[in-house]
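# step 3/5: fold
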Amino acid sequence: MLMLAILAMSANAALAADKPAALALPEVIAQVQPKIVKIYGAGGYRGLESYQSGMLISATGHVLTVWSYVLDTEFITVVLNDGRRFDAKLLAADPRLEAAVLKFDAQDLPHFDLTKAPQADAGARVLAFSNLFGIAVGNEPASVQHGVISARSRLDARRGGFKTPYRGPIYVTDTITNNPGAAGGALTNGRGELLGMLGKELRSAQTGAWLNYSIPAAEMAKTVDEIRAGRFVQRPADDQAAKPKQALSAELLGLVLVPDVLQRTPPYLDAVRANSPAARAGLRADDLVVFVNGRLVPSCKSLHNELEFVDRIDKVQITVMRGEDLIDVTLGADEAQP
């Protein structure tokens, strides 16, 4: 019996040694803060905030954040925890997930590993890191909120009240994370491991209630992998790929874009020509074109440029955002007039 007791104690000691030691709350916060960034971009119109939050997901300057109007500019600034400022570019976005990836040049940065993100259940204690209200502008730490996961749910269960293109799993928390600037921040567990990304401000059109939620990191990992594989990415301006002699154009497809008056005018449809391929596919005025053949087109200029790489005899897939819905259509090039 004594020998069995000794063996049991040894086994328990070995199991305990395998478990990561619990960290005190200040240590966890200090460990996570360098992985949180402040993002500054477009805003100011009608009181729109020009800032949001983000998190580092690579040692070389990849940032995961929400896809929003703040990124609708060529001048995006990322501020690190130590106060260093970098000019960042929108690398790619997934409107269905409302997630975007930025990139700036750096090395050896602390970051979250999305492939190692655990899951959490209702009742788990969590920390929410973000630059809510834009309080931090330099080397000030991000704001930290402490709370619990109230529930794990699917956002599509609330579709009638909360308008968002994302219809997947979420963590509902009791932390008040739906503040200006908080979107794109990180939700972690008590060990500082990433659980999810704080969602946009979301309010029920039926009850007026605000929803405090985060999108699980597992949902983000697939999108990030696709981005690294070249999907959702905007075509580089210096792309040397050969263009066809006769390419498609917005005019041939029946797309009439809004006047391109800004440096980065979003490619909204001003009109759709009658009896055109676009009209037959059901596209309408005020639709926002977000993808052409899987490539991000954040501006009128980039949309025109992307179509120049499509031969007139080929088909092209267009993804538009209509209200809160994303719609995919395939326009047959043979429908266009020669």
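# step 4/5: annotate
The mean pLDDT is 85.
# step 5/5: archive (pending)
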